Amino acid sequence: MPAHIVASIRITDRTEYDKYQAGFMDIFAKYRGELLGVSGAPQVIEGAWPFTRAVLLRFPDDAEARRWYESPEYQKLSQHRWNGSTGTVIGFEGFPTTA
Description:
The chain is α+β, with helices and mostly antiparallel strands and about 100 residues long. Helix content is about 35%, strand content about 30%.
């Protein structure tokens, strides 16, 4: 079953976050992930949104998503995200795809 990750991020240090962003795709691509959406100006339809960025990722399954997130290379890169932003990252199962 596919796995999704949603990140709600408030960038606090653009220089530090840019370092994260510059290395993200090279690592992400190794784990069969798909970048489904990213916005620096998400449109609030309902409720409050204290963030400046929204990201939606998909992986073939939870094991691959965890392999990516827990990889030493991603954890090292994440230091820049943690230093340059605050936010919430969640994961959840998707529906099986039909052919």
